[in-house]
Each structure stands twice: as C-alpha cells, then as structure tokens.
C-alpha cells in the first residue's frame, strides 16, 4: 500500500467529520471573499465623501463577516480535536490488539519493542492531519476563491488564475514522490537511532566498560550520520520546492499588479476595485505560504503513516471458528511426520517428528543447544504452523479447534518472559475476579512464593517495575508460574523454568507441577535432572529429529 493510500484510508474512517470541516472552510472562504468586496465598496463610499446608512450597514456586515469566520473556525477546531482524540485511541488499541495476535513467523524478523516505538508517530499523524485539514484546506480554498474573485474583475484574470493553479499543481507533483521518500528515509534513521539508544539503555551495565562505551558512541555516530544525511536530502527537496514556490509568488504578484495597474490606467477598474484586488492578492500570497509549510507537514504525515502502517501490515493469526470446543480434561497432542523450516530459510530445523502426548502426561524435552526443543514446543503450542506433517489435538486435526479456544486453555512460560508493570496481584491474576484470595494464597504456598509476599509491606499490592527490576530472578520465575497455574490451564508448556530457584524449593515446585492430581498435561524443556525423575515420559532431540 502506498503512503498516500494509507492517508486516504485514514480519512475515510472519519469521512463525516472531514466533510464538516470542509463545509466550514468553504463557508468561511465565501464570507472571507465578501471582505474585499465590502472594503471595495467602503473605499468607494469614502472616495465619494459620503457617510450614509449604507456605509454603516456595510461596515457592520464586514465586521459580522469576520466574527462569523471566527465562529466557523471554532467549530472546525472542535471537530479536529475530536478527530485527534479518535486517531490516538484507535491507534493505541490497534497496537495493543495486534501485538499479541501477530503471526510469530511474520514478527520474528523484527524486534517488537522497536515496532512499538512507532506508536509515537501517531502524535505526528494527530497533529499533522488536523493542521492539514484546517490550514491547508483553508489555504487551498483561499487560493481558488481568490482567483475566482479576481476573475470577476476582468476576464484576463481567469486565464492568469488557471495558469497559476496549473503551475502550483506542477510544483506539488514534481516534489511529491521525492518529498515522501526522503522524509521516510529520515524517519527510518530516526528509529535506528532510537533503537540504538534503547539498546544502550537496556545494556547500560555492560556499556560502563570503556571499550564498549566507545563502541556505543561510534555506532551512535554512524546512525546519526545517516539521519543527518537523510534530513539533508529531505531539506534539499524542501528548498527546491520553496524556491519554486517563491518564483510562483513573484510571478503571481508581479502579474497581478501589472494587470491591475494597466486595468486601472485604462479605466477598466476603479481604485476601490484595485485596493480589493490587492487584498485578494495578499490573501493568495499568504495562502501559498501556508501551502508550502503544509506540503512539508504532508510528507511527514505520510512518512509517519507508512511507519505505523508497516506494523499494521504484519499478518495476524487466523481467527477461524473452531468446529469443536476443548473440554475440561487435560489436552492430548499427537504429531505425525512433523517438520518445520523458518519462512526465509531452506533448512528444516525440525524433521519428521512423530510423538504422542497423552492426557495428563508429564513430558520432558531434552537435547543439546540448537537441537529444536523450543521450535517443537512452539509447534505443539500452536505459536507456529507446521511446514509439513500433522498435529492432532485430542485425536483430531488441530485446525478443528479455534486458536482462541486453544490458547484460552493452555499456558506457556517462555525463556524471555518476565513480569509486566503493575502490582504483583495484577501480575498473577490479570484482574480475573473469579480467582479467590484463598486460592491465590494456597497456590503461592505450593509454589514457594507466599513467604516472600508476606515479607513485603504491601504484600500482593506491591508494585513491580517492568522487567521485574527490583525482584530477584527466582521470584520472577515463581510469579510467572503462579500466574500460569491460576489460569486453570489444560496444558502447560514450560521453557527452562526454575533455573534460578534454589535446589530444594525447585524440587518442591517440580513435585507440585508433576503431581498426579493436577488437571493438566505438562511439557517441560529443562536441563534439571529432577524433572526427568518426576516426568512419565521424555523425548530427546538431536539436530531437529527425535532420538529414542
Ligand atoms: N528465526 C530463525 N531463523 C532460522 N533459524 C532459526 C531461527 N530461530 C532458530 N533457528 C534455528 O533453529 C534451530 C533450533 O532452534 P531452537 O531454539 O528450537 O533450539 P533449542 O534446542 O531450543 O536450543 P537452545 O537449547 O539453545 O534453546 C537452531 O539451529 C536455530 O539456529
């Protein structure tokens, strides 16, 4: 999709509001037109030395006209304010809705946090769109109306006006594509710089070392260099456009002054009309100035829409209606000849995996680094789709169950998972009102978290920072596990859990997770030998295949 199409799509949603803004612009434009006409008549009256009732009426009409334009403006501001609020709300929900639903295979080439930064471009769109709608639509109308009005004075102005509009359009067309392209290039570097700063911030401890510190500054220098280059090339387009527009203004002013002067000299126009024409010319010149600043903004808005649009274009998981519903029992999974390769690679990372996981099984997946354990768990938990082979859930083709239903019934803890900003209670219950406090306390005791929570002055209401900064890594692991158990899963996938928990506590937690009475099927990837002693089955992976 081109940036311009995205822009049109954005406006389409709020078509009604935009029509209203245009309507007020047209009304204000028409009234503004009457201003020079009124002034022309006032000058004529004054020249004739008459202060008549008509003169007073005319003054009142002109003043009222100015007031009316103000009223229309206020109405426009109200609508654009609503529009800005809607753009913000819509964009934030789009981001919040989409990230968890993005297809893993489409998202993995990106760093999700970096993509989330693009939300800030919403602010550019918000401000830009309202300014474009208010100022630029007004300015464009002013140019058109002004030229129409001038043409009333003499037919010669019609030709001149049309020539100017064509010229203005040509200037716009000439610079449009390169204006958007360079603005996008500049924006790309802006994100690269922001991303690098994020990396430095995230690894600030490692960057304290002088050598790493120097490297960080050198890399920043490279990226900023790219940004400045991008900016310069964008500025070149703006400068070119400015020179062309200045030429346009010079041509217009000179042309209109000369034509106006000649018409006065030839007595085809009186002085009042000449003054009025001057006001119109001044209006048109100001409007052209606004159009120039508007195009600069327009390029930036299109670039911002493109940056946001690339995130919105990432394909989401299919939301098909499932034919069957999962029941209350633990889930069973079977695979036959399952193979997987990443979309941009020709090598299979999983080859011909056939396995059976019965209801209530406690399964351990083992194997050396890079053997495909995580990929297998992702296939079983339907994060990714098999390239070849079959996957059965409770004995049926996995596609018969909707992804939503399946995900509602499983719980996964991945190696990089962490707590989110909020209270500990929010982190373990996600504000689910069906989970009683007694249950929370009991699960926390079973998973060895209760003692720690009791030691906190605010207990479960203690706020945790994003990434669990003030928490020890073992506490984070326990919080994630409590959340997992409290979500009542029928199947649990754990990737390297309890790596940081003390041996004795880990044993007790493993005993709990693998106990026969627990209503789930469990799949664990771990190097801890205690899991093996408690699981009823284990699979050993090697170079993408299952070894028996
Ligand atoms: N995005 C990717 N594109 C291409 N290959 C990938 C990608 N991600 C992982 N791989 C490859 O897939 C193979 C299996 O990786 P996987 O993470 O499943 O192994 P693992 O057994 O879980 O490893 P570890 O024990 O180190 O976590 C590895 O060879 C890895 O290099």
Automatic annotation (TrEMBL):
Its main location: membrane. Residues 333-548 form the ABC transporter domain. Keywords: ATP-binding, Membrane, Nucleotide-binding, Transmembrane, Transmembrane helix. The keyword 4Fe-4S does not apply. The keyword NAD does not apply. Gene3D superfamilies: ABC transporter type 1, transmembrane domain, P-loop containing nucleotide triphosphate hydrolases. GO terms for molecular function: ATP binding. Residues 21-300 form the ABC transmembrane type-1 domain. The chain crosses the membrane at residues 21-43, 55-75, 132-150, 156-176, 242-265. It is found in: Cell membrane. It is a multi-pass membrane protein. This is ATP-binding cassette domain-containing protein. It comes from Galbibacter pacificus. The lineage of its organism: Bacteria, Pseudomonadati, Bacteroidota, Flavobacteriia, Flavobacteriales.
């Amino acid at each position: 999709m081109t940036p311009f199409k995205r822009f049109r799509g954005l406006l389409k949603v709020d078509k009604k509001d935009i029509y209203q803004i245009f309507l007020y612009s047209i009304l204000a434009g028409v009234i503004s037109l009457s201003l020079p006409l009124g002034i022309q008549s006032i000058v004529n009256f004054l020249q004739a030395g008459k202060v008549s009732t008509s003169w007073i009426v005319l003054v009142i009409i002109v003043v009222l006209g100015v007031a009316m334009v103000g009223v229309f403006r206020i109405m426009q501001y109200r609508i654009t304010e609503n529009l800005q609020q809607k753009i913000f709300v819509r964009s934030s929900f789009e981001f919040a809705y989409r990230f968890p639903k993005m297809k893993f295979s489409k998202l993995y080439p990106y760093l999700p946090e970096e993509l989330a930064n693009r939300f800030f471009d919403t602010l550019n769109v918000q401000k830009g769109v309202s300014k474009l709608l208010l100022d630029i639509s007004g300015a464009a109308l002013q140019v058109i109306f002004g030229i129409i009005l001038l043409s009333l004075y003499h037919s010669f102005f019609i030709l001149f006006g049309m020539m100017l509009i064509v010229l203005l359009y040509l200037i716009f067309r000439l610079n449009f594509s390169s204006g958007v392209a360079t603005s996008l290039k500049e924006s790309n570097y802006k994100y690269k710089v922001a991303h690098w700063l994020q990396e430095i911030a995230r690894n600030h401890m490692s960057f304290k070392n002088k050598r790493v510190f120097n490297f960080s500054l050198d890399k920043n220098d490279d990226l900023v260099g790219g940004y400045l280059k991008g900016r310069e090339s964008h500025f070149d387009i703006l400068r070119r456009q400015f020179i062309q527009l200045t030429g346009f203004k010079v041509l217009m002013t000179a042309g209109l002054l000369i034509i106006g002067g000649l018409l006065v000299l030839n007595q085809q126009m009186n002085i009042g009309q000449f003054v009025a024409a001057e006001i119109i010319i001044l209006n048109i010149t100001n409007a052209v100035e606004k159009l120039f600043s508007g195009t600069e903004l327009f390029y930036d808005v299109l670039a911002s829409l493109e940056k946001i649009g690339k995130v919105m274009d990432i394909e989401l998981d299919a939301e098909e209606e499932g034919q069957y519903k999962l029941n209350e029992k633990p889930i069973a999974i079977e695979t036959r000849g399952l193979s997987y390769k990443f979309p941009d690679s020709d090598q299979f990372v999983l080859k011909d995996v056939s396995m059976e996981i019965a209801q209530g099984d406690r399964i351990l997946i083992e194997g050396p680094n890079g053997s495909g354990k995580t990929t297998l768990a992702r296939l079983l938990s339907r994060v990714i789709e098999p390239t070849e082979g079959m996957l059965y859930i409770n004995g049926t083709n996995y596609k018969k169950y909707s992804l939503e239903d399946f995900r509602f019934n499983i719980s996964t803890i991945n190696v990089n998972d962490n707590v989110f900003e909020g209270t500990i209670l929010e982190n373990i219950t996600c504000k689910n009102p069906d989970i009683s406090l007694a249950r929370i306390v009991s699960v926390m005791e079973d998973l060895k978290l209760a003692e720690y929570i009791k030691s906190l002055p605010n207990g479960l209401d203690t706020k945790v920072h994003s990434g669990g900064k003030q928490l020890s890594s073992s506490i984070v692991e326990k919080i994630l596990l409590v959340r997992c158990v409290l979500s009542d899963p029928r199947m649990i996938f754990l990737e390297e859990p309890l790596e940081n928990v003390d041996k004795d506590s880990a044993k007790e937690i493993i005993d709990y997770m693998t106990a026969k009475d627990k209503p789930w099927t469990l799949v664990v990837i771990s190097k801890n030998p205690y899991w093996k002693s408690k699981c009823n089955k284990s699979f050993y992976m090697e170079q993408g295949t299952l070894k028996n």
